[in-house]
Write a structure and sequence with these properties.
single chain, mainly alpha
């Protein structure tokens, strides 16, 4: 089945992460891509290898060369540790490694 630009709803256990993604990430990373830096898509980002790398990256995002890019930093006041964990799980399970039925 083809969903066009609309994705099926996430599983119940990933809805909180989907909400964070929709609020903070979806605008620049639709479907796991990257509208500002297409050569650096979210779905294959090395920062998704483990939660600690992901959390460190979203709080202080840098390009592969170490310079500042266009992504804003998301402090723990903006995205809590719990929300970051939910976001990480959502991205890894739905965006980066979608399950086919």
């Amino acid at each position: 089945m083809v969903y066009g630009v609309k994705s099926p709803p996430p599983p119940e256990n990933l809805k909180a992460g989907a909400k964070v993604f929709s609020a903070y990430c979806k605008g620049c990373h639709p479907h796991g891509g990257n509208i500002l830096k297409p050569n650096l898509p979210l779905r294959s980002a090395p920062q998704l290898a483990d939660f600690n790398s992901f959390e460190a990256f979203i709080s202080d995002p840098k390009l592969p060369d170490g310079s500042r890019g266009p992504m804003p930093a998301f402090s723990s006041e903006k995205i809590s540790k719990q929300q970051a964990r939910e976001l990480y799980e959502y991205i890894n399970q739905v965006i980066a490694h979608p399950k086919r039925k």
